[in-house]
Description:
- Helix content is 45%, strand content 15%.
- By secondary structure, it is of the alpha/beta class.
- The chain has one domain (10-188, 222-247): 3-Layer(aba) Sandwich (Rossmann fold).
- The longest helix has 27 residues, at 107-133.
- The mean pLDDT is 97.
- Bound molecules: nicotinamide-adenine-dinucleotide.
Amino acid sequence: MQTLDYNDKVVMITGAGSGMGKLAAQNFSKAGAILAICDVNKANIEAVAAQLREEGCEVLASAFDVSDESLVQKFVADCLHCFDKIDVAINNAGVLQPIARTHLLDLEILDMQYKVNIKGVFTCMKHQITAMKEVNNGVILNLSSVAGLGAAANLSTYSASKHAVIGLTRSAAVEYGRYGIRINALCPSHVDSPMMDSAEKESHINKENIAAANPMKRLATMQEIVNAMLWLCSDYNSYMNGTTIAIDGGLTAM
Ligand SMILES: NC(=O)c1ccc[n+]([C@@H]2O[C@H](COP(=O)([O-])OP(=O)(O)OC[C@H]3O[C@@H](n4cnc5c(N)ncnc54)[C@H](O)[C@@H]3O)[C@@H](O)[C@H]2O)c1
């Protein structure tokens, strides 16, 4: 029987310096994976890598911006050089926008959403797929959001970027299914992560109010989202392709 065992699997995770990416790195390491992790925050990614190495995990770590194609290409090449393959890629790096109505947003906010959330995911997918296609095998999981499935008032550019992640996911899934590459998108609702903490501090939103609006009357924990990642990317889940999976306490069922 196939299990959630990641022994000998090479797992690339972007945005692994904090939040769900960091927790995912720790969980995939515990499940036996070899890791290739990156983040734009150098101090954070180095600290995560040091801790994982102390625990015996084989780790390639690098600090760069996922929207810089030459650096993404180099990281994928370094990963192939060190480990020969990429079995799983989780494109998790992302940024939130300031919480505000559309007419109040500067165009720089839209540019930033495009740069990290769309161009970053596209660039990573492009080079991951190139590597995976060589061996007719691979799994890619892109972090979208419930904001990618429907309206997100006061988050219009973020919502647009997360809709785009779903478009990239679905199109690539159809293009590369024939090569044994499965590509899906994960759509969490509000997760109690550093991103939410910053939003609470900077944009004066209130986690309690957000929790009250969810059918389960709480935010998701990061572990609940990472649990889904572990299953979605495993051999146990071998026929899911081009799907968007909401882990949202029932929010999108309302
Ligand atoms: N927290 C939530 O409520 C929530 C809900 C739905 C979806 N998501 C998505 O989940 C993902 C992870 O979110 P999180 O809550 O763990 O946030 P987080 O802010 O804790 O982590 C995001 C990480 O991405 C890194 N990053 C940002 N821009 C980057 C870039 N250009 N290149 C490389 N790394 C970059 C950051 O440095 C950070 O370490 C994001 O894509 C986010 O949009 C989050």
